[in-house]
Write a structure and sequence with these properties.
The chain has 274 residues and is an alpha/beta fold. 38% of the residues lie in helices and 24% in strands. It contains ten helices and ten strands. It has a single domain, classed as P-loop containing nucleotide triphosphate hydrolases (Rossmann fold, 3-Layer(aba) Sandwich), CATH 3.40.50.300. A hairpin with a 2-residue loop joins strand 4 and strand 5. Helix 3 crosses helix 4 and helix 4 crosses helix 5.
């Protein structure tokens, strides 16, 4: 049996708020003992309302924040955000909700894509350019975009660039933190289809952070529901959506408008034909 890409064991993250003259310091338990295993080529969606701990979890498994306790294993190797090596950093990449905020406005897109190779590999300038150009085309952009700046692109195009940059070092898995929530519905569908196509072609593994259940239902293999820092439900997409076991999961589903990527496509096709 192959080694899972990502293993998380009893992961916890506490924050201590500063006290005052008459107020003691308070400990906030942001993530409370979360565990899961993710196999290569699969997508785990982590869902829940704002403040449930899903983004804190994302920051720990991408080695941005250190866990208070618990273990993180990537490709079977124990990792620790307090002692991150270059090799560890290459294994996990993150795509944020706002792509413009993560792109240097003074840097041309070709340089944005080639920079991870410059820092982490011994590739020549020509090799870096060739790989960056190939990835630009792979995510649906054109060769003429290579020398343009981030402000010259739409939100959807910028997210394509962010995805391309995240893939430049061939990471073991990607964390996608609300990657389509800031985009128009039609663009959301395009980006989700791109992510699925890339996953099918390269065997990519995703941790997909979202509060949008219609998006989760379209892209996920497994779903983990978080509530006040705890994973209250975890199972296959069909099991969780078809027969949710936890009361919070049922409440969350009942409060979500019924829509889907397929319905978005149908509405856009109807509009185009009119």
């Amino acid at each position: 049996m192959s080694t899972p890409v990502l293993q998380v064991r009893d992961l916890k993250r506490d924050y201590v708020s500063s006290g005052g003259l008459f107020r003691p310091a308070k400990v906030v338990h942001a993530v409370k003992g979360v565990s899961f295993t993710l196999e290569k080529g699969k997508t785990l969606a982590v869902v829940g309302e704002s403040g449930c701990g899903k983004s804190t979890l994302a920051r720990m498994i991408t080695l941005i924040d250190q866990q208070t306790s618990g273990d993180i294993l990537i490709d079977g190797d124990m990792v620790d955000a307090g002692h991150v090596t270059k090799a560890m950093r290459q294994k996990v990449q993150i795509v944020f909700q706002n792509p413009y905020g993560s792109l240097n406005p003074r840097q041309k897109i070709g340089d944005v894509l080639a920079e991870p190779l410059l820092i982490n590999t011994k590739m020549s300038a020509a090799e870096r350019r060739d790989k960056a150009m190939a990835m630009l085309l792979k995510v649906g952009l054109q060769a003429e975009h290579y020398n343009r700046y981030p402000h010259m692109f739409s939100g959807g195009q910028r997210q394509r660039i962010a995805i391309a940059r995240a893939l430049m070092l061939n990471p073991s898995f990607l964390v996608l933190d609300e990657p389509v929530s800031a985009l128009d519905l039609s663009v959301q569908a395009q980006i989700l289809n791109l992510l699925k196509d890339l996953q099918d072609e390269f065997g990519l593994t995703y941790v997909f952070i979202s509060h949008d259940l219609s998006v989760v239902r379209y892209i996920a293999n497994e779903v983990m529901v978080m509530y006040y820092g705890e994973a209250v439900e975890h199972g296959s997409r069909d099991a969780v959506f078809g027969d949710p076991q936890h009361e919070y999961t049922r409440t969350l589903f009942a409060a979500t408008p019924k829509t889907s990527v397929d319905s978005i496509k149908a509405r856009l096709a109807k509009k185009a034909a009119a």
